[in-house]
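Hey, can you fold this?
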Amino acid sequence: MNKMKAGWIGFIKPGDDFEAYWENLKQLAALGYRGMEGGEALLRGDVDDNLKRFHDLGLQVLTVSANIKDLREGNYSDIVAKAKRLKTNRATVWVSSINSSFWNEEPVYDDVMRDCEVMEKAAEKLEEEGITLCYHNHHQDFLVSFRGVCCFDILIYNTEKLKIELDVGWVTNGLQDPCRVMERIKDRLAAIHVKDYINGEYREKEGGWAPIFTTVGNGLLKLVPVLETAQKIGLEWAVVEQDQMHNLSPMESLTASYLNMKETGFVL
């Protein structure tokens, strides 16, 4: 059974010193990471040169961002252009009415149903361009229900083409077992986000609330069962994410998270 590859999203940003950013990329590639989500940073400057340098490090762009507002308006051209420019075949929706309470907006059933329809239509259109559209969950997807059905299940029941990039940390914080969720939707999974957190204290996050995030393998996430389940399903990518730093720097946390995942034996 093939081991999964490790990717990351967030943590480091180019800033004004682009060469310093490249030094970080070199370190992460040398450590063992093989992919990065949110490759829009490579669109800065000479894109062809950036991509060559990136690929020469053994890295690839795993997905680009798809804005729900663009999808609602049927504007797919920018997403397609960005994905093809960065040589990736995935685009991901991070925010929608389904998890609107994350942003302190009261969730509305009609809005949730509209966005299910919007994303399914977009998935069909993007598939024609060779691009897979994915949806990334938060904990609200599992904590908010309408008519006895949580928002995540409403999404699953009302879409077919749309794939899921399951954030197992948010699933756990949403009081669900991520292994069971993965098994239940395994045919819809494109990748997993591996996120960890400490229970008890909460801090504000962009107007909403969130747990105290921590290095993968250092919190409440049941890392070994999660990665074992993901490998059995046949997923290729386990993507590390930490919305806010705890005690380590971004590079320290990326290093520790990767090594903790590798130590399980399920990640290259």
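Oh, and this one too while you're at it.
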Amino acid sequence: MRVVKSQFTNRSWFRRATVGIASFFTILLFSAVGTLLFALKPSQFLSSLLSEEIIYSVKLSVLTASISTLLVMCCSVPTAYALSRFAFPGKTLIKTILGLPMAFPELVMGLALLLLFGQGFLGPFFETFGIKVTFSRLGITVAQFFIAFPYAVKIVYSTFEGINPRYEQVSRSFGYGEFETFRKVTLPMARSGLFASAIITFARCIGSFGAVLILAGGSYMYTEVLPVTLYLNISYGNLEMAITSGILLMIIAFLAILSFERLEGGKL
């Protein structure tokens, strides 16, 4: 009885400690977030929210993030499927390279993209077709794509890894080809993971800043997406507009994470 009681006491102590640590840092994080939420009066927030600059920024952010998300999902699904199902030379190297943007700052990615699409490499080629990537709205989408793509690949890869390949083998045994099996068996089973990936990708695109700022520039009412609005208004000393854009970014992130958790938990 003493041994059992001692074990129960140890488990209770450990449980209280871990829950306490989780609660403490959750409260600390919420306090930091709360300073942003309650920094403005409702009238100040509403006034900034309805301003021409914020409305333009929200529209441009949603438009570019939607286009980028669509492109990312179209590219990440076949990429992740190939990495999860097929063995081929250079697979490990490809996975490593795809994960690089998650490991270094966005500013580095933005500089790399600026050099790639600038005058020294691909810039002149695209400009012969009348396409300008640097310091343009197109540059926003390009930057968002390269920032969000690795995250989408990782989530979709984990989704495909969680699907037993035997289902695909059974489909192939009935005479279905690889593409038919992928379309009729694998994709429906991966639906929740794909939706979750799209949500996180959209949020990641909305929140992209460093790469967007360097590649597309931070031009007022031209390439001004929400993170750029926050940056510009802090530079101008307009805290009301900066805080409002920060709150909008935080709300988008919260909804994205909440949706992701529900999808991952199978509560779609």
